[in-house]
């Protein structure tokens, strides 16, 4: 899956883990307590989902971000995937082969754009509370449209293209 990284990071190491996210996320380059202090996740599932939405579809607008959120929620509900939001997002841990590239790319997961982070939190909260519809048609997978062909050996049913991502179930 495509990672939406915008610029270099000060540290190639992962600075935050889910428990730390609940306590507070800071925007890189700002002092602790500055930046996104008003936009904090309510709980760990919201934090995990918001990070996935932020990094995987941050440049896709609300619809693209919602699509990524629903892939995570569809996986959580499917028997072949973990049963919690954070476990879905972290599946494969931090090793290559993980399900969401941002989680295993070795770069900081700290949001850098406060407005985009606030939108990611809003999209994640709406999806978790059932206040948004699934725009993917039940998709469990997606990839960047720029890849051309799906990167899987197993055939999957294409459901929709939203922005720069193609979704499958």
Structure description:
This protein has six helices and three strands, in the order ααααααβββ. The protein is mainly α. The protein has a domain at 18-133. It has a three-stranded antiparallel sheet with strand order 1-3-2, covered by helices on one side. β2 (158-162) and β3 (165-168) form a beta hairpin. Mean pLDDT is 80; it is low at 1-38.
Question: Largest beta sheet, briefly?
Answer: 3 strands, antiparallel
Our Rg estimate from Cα atoms comes to: 15 Å
Helix content: 25-40%
One letter per element, helices H and strands E, the order comes to: HHHHHHEEE
Shape: globular
| CA distance, first residue to last residue | 14 Å
Content-based structural category: mainly alpha
What is the averaged pLDDT score? 80
Unreliable stretches (pLDDT < 50, length at least 5) are 1-38
Task: Identify the notable features of this structure and list them briefly.
169 residues, 6 helices, mainly alpha, globular, 36% helix, 3-stranded antiparallel sheet
Structure summarized in a few sentences:
This protein is mainly alpha-helical. The chain is built from six helices and three strands, in the order ααααααβββ. It has a domain of 116 residues.
Write the layout of secondary structure elements.
Elements: H1 18-23, H2 44-57, H3 61-77, H4 85-89, H5 101-104, H6 114-128, E1 141-144, E2 158-162, E3 165-168
Antiparallel strand pairs: 1-3, 2-3
Helix pairs in contact: 2-3, 2-6, 3-6
């Amino acid at each position: 899956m495509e990672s939406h990284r915008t610029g270099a990071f000060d540290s190639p190491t992962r600075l935050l883990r889910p428990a730390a996210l609940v306590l507070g996320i800071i925007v890189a380059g700002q002092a602790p307590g500055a930046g996104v202090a008003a936009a904090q996740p309510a709980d760990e599932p919201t934090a995990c989902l918001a990070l996935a939405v932020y990094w995987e579809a941050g440049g896709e607008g609300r619809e693209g971000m919602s699509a990524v959120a629903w892939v995570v929620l569809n996986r959580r509900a499917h028997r072949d995937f973990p049963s919690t939001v954070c476990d879905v997002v972290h599946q494969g841990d931090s090793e290559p082969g993980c399900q969401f590239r941002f989680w295993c790319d070795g770069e900081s997961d700290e949001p850098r754009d406060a407005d985009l982070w606030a939108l990611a939190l809003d999209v994640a909260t709406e999806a978790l509370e059932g206040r948004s519809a699934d725009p993917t048609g039940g998709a469990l997978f997606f990839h960047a449209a720029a890849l051309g062909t799906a990167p899987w050996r197993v055939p999957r049913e294409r459901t929709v293209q939203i922005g720069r991502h193609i979704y499958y179930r």
